[in-house]
Design goal:
- The chain is an alpha/beta fold.
- It has a single domain, classed as TIM Barrel (Alpha-Beta Barrel).
- The chain contains seven helices and 13 strands.
- The strands form three sheets. It has an eight-stranded parallel beta barrel with strand order 2-3-5-6-7-10-11-12, surrounded by five helices.
- The longest helix has 11 residues.
- The two termini are 14 Å apart.
- The structure holds SN-glycerol-3-phosphate and calcium ion (CA).
- One of its GO terms (biological process) is lipid metabolic process.
- It holds the Pfam family GDPD.
- This is Glycerophosphodiester phosphodiesterase.
- InterPro entries: GP_PDE_dom, PLC-like_Pdiesterase_TIM-brl.
- GO terms for molecular function: phosphoric diester hydrolase activity.
Length: 258
């Protein structure tokens, strides 16, 4: 049976399909996006990188090794080379022939039927030159800016988005919690305050930090919060009781909307 998520006080609860419906189909493929469209998810989360020839492509890692039959860095492969790779068979041979999609292909598949949470990644060594602007250009070309949100772990990426001559919702992804202790975020230990993220609509946190008190403290500072990544329906219910505004899950098919 599916788990029902009761909304309290009319509060809007979002379910976000992580890398598409990634339990049902290989992550970040059009097959996973299509499966997610059939679920009760409100958003579909995908990860983007930039190919050698400057195309925004949908894949989690900076290299193709884990999820495809190829090897090498996304940044060093052209779109044509990336498209030759099989992004399905390694997970499940039933999905042989799935390709690494472009962002444009995902937009044409989703067409605003659900919202898209697009995570901007960095390359193995460096940030991608122009990934932020190119992502926005693709969204504009597909009239998708109204139903897309951009998120990143990396402050330089968020800062570039905030400096662009266009307003689009952004979420900051955080590795740990601040400002109580020196904590691990953005891949190092830092002291800090959340003030620098005032342009972000949400601070998205790891499930290990998603206590009621921490979520309340984010709300009190004016941020919403989506929690990543939780697949156990009981824990998902607990996250909503703790006040999470959304849960990023590989199993959106287990959740029934009230
Ligand atoms: O959406 C948040 C989550 O996707 C962050 O981690 O490694 O799955 O991109 P990762
Ligand atoms: Ca992600």
């Amino acid at each position: 049976a599916k788990v029902s998520l009761m909304q309290k006080n009319g509060r809007k609860i979002s379910v976000i399909a992580h890398r598409g419906a990634s339990y049902l189909a290989p992550e970040n493929t059009l097959a996973a996006v299509k499966k997610a469209l059939e679920t009760s998810a409100d958003f579909i989360e995908i990860d983007v990188h930039l190919s050698k020839d400057g195309q925004v492509v949908v894949i989690h890692d900076a290299t193709v090794d884990r999820t495809t039959n190829g090897t090498g860095q996304v940044a060093q492969l052209t779109l044509e080379e990336l498209k030759e790779l099989d992004a399905g068979s390694k997970t499940d041979t039933a999905f042989a022939g799935e390709r690494i999609p472009t962002l444009a292909q995902v937009l044409k598949t989703v067409k605003g039927k659900k919202k898209l949470l697009i995570e901007l990644k960095k390359g193995e060594q460096d940030y991608y030159e122009g990934l932020e602007q190119k992502t926005l250009d693709v969204l504009k070309a597909h009239n998708a800016t109204d139903w897309c949100v951009l998120q990143s772990f990396y402050d330089p990426i968020l800062e570039r988005i905030w400096q662009m001559d266009f307003m689009i919702p952004t979420h900051k992804l955080m590795m740990g919690k601040i400002p109580f202790l020196p904590i691990f975020f953005d891949h190092e230990f830092k002291f800090g305050s959340l003030d620098r993220y005032h342009e972000a609509a949400a601070i998205n946190i790891h499930r290990h930090f998603a206590s009621k008190s921490f979520i309340t403290s984010l709300h009190n500072q004016g941020f919403k919060t989506f929690v990543w990544t939780e697949d156990d329906p009981k824990n998902i219910q607990q996250l909503f009781q703790n006040g999470a505004d959304g849960v990023i899950t590989n199993r959106p098919e287990l959740i029934e909307k009230p």
